[in-house]
């Protein structure tokens, strides 16, 4: 792929919301791709793909480029630019993502090239900036509105209009203390890539899913599955899908925090584990309907459907 070195903005030396993405200066494009490629989840290239990709197959295609060490963001923008999209279109998407860092990169580039145009709102960049604070988490630069600053990379099941979790009262230290540093006495379940611990935190009970990292050869594959589950939980919300209470990637421990379901799993209830009463047919039908609604919601999300090969009930 080839991007114009100067393009239509070369003559005037200025960018505007009407500048085509094909005319984005290579240096600026490199900065934009670098920031988006280094971020995970909703603020990374996957968050961009969620809004711009036409199908899940397109996302899988981009994943192959990323696995080859190429820029996922560059591939997305290249495809989108072929639809005659402009910098203004990109700024609108970035605003929906809440990605103020990249917005400022583009705006500051335009301001440096031609400060006089910034006084003309119709030709320059729109006034869409708010005060932001920059934090460095896990060697990645993240941007957070000062009114919505998160601490210790923690989130709770409260969402803004974009569906992004806002803040959390739970800290990673709470998880350490609640599980006695992940002691086996608090282990309540094990899966292929997760261990699940029960923890009492701030007068509440939580299930802590911790990513297994025993086999180094499978670490990359496990990490991708961890990120996949995290991204789905951050981006998609439904009454029949258990909300994420917090997530952490600290001290070589990667974990997801959920509210603890005291009634156990559907399997336990069907088998009457612990001498529990059998479920009535009315409850069983409601469970089936709720599960079907959650699956239908995930299969019909835009722009990419989410297919889950393992459903916990």
Automatic annotation (TrEMBL):
Question: Is Transferase a UniProt keyword of this protein?
Answer: yes
Database matches in InterPro entries? DEATH-like_dom_sf, Death_dom, IRAK3_death, Kinase-like_dom_sf, Prot_kinase_dom
Q: Which GO terms describe its molecular function?
A: ATP binding; protein kinase activity
- Which keywords, in A-to-Z order, does the entry hold? Kinase, Receptor, Signal, Transferase
GO terms under biological process: cellular response to lipopolysaccharide; interleukin-1-mediated signaling pathway; intracellular signal transduction; negative regulation of interleukin-12 production; negative regulation of tumor necrosis factor production; Toll signaling pathway
**Taxonomy, superkingdom:** Eukaryota
Please state every residue range assigned to the domain named Death. Answer: 45-110
Q: Which residues form the signal peptide?
A: 1-30
Q: What is this protein called?
A: Interleukin 1 receptor associated kinase 3
Species: Rhinolophus ferrumequinum (Greater horseshoe bat)
């Amino acid at each position: 792929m080839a991007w114009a070195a100067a393009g239509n903005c070369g003559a005037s030396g200025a960018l505007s919301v009407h500048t085509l993405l094909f005319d984005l200066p290579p240096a600026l494009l490199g900065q934009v791709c670098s920031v988006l490629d280094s971020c995970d989840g909703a603020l990374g290239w996957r968050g961009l793909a969620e809004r711009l990709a036409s199908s899940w197959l397109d996302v899988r295609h981009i994943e192959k480029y990323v696995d080859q060490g190429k820029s996922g963001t560059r591939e997305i923008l290249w495809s989108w630019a072929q639809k005659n999209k402009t910098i203004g279109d990109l700024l609108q998407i970035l605003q929906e993502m809440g990605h103020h860092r990249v917005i400022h990169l583009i705006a500051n580039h335009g301001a440096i090239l031609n400060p006089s145009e910034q006084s003309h709102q119709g030709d320059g960049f729109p006034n869409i900036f708010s005060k932001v604070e920059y934090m460095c988490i896990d060697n990645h630069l993240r941007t957070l509105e000062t009114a919505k600053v998160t601490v210790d990379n923690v989130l709770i099941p409260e969402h803004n209009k974009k569906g992004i979790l806002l803040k959390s009262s739970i800290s990673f230290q709470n998880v350490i203390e609640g599980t006695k540093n992940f002691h086996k006495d608090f282990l309540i379940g094990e899966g292929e890539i997760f261990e699940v611990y029960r923890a009492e935190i701030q007068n509440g009970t939580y299930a802590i899913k911790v990513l297994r990292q025993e086999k180094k050869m499978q670490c990359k594959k496990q990490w991708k599955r961890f990120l996949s589950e995290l991204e789905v939980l951050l981006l998609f919300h439904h009454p029949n899908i258990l909300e994420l209470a917090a997530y952490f990637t600290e001290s070589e421990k990667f974990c997801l925090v959920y509210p603890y379901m005291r009634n156990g799993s559907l399997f336990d209830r069907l088998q009457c584990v612990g001498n529990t009463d059998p479920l009535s047919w009315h409850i069983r039908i409601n469970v089936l309907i709720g599960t079907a609604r959650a699956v239908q919601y995930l299969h019909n999300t835009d722009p990419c459907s989410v297919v889950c090969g393992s459903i916990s009930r």
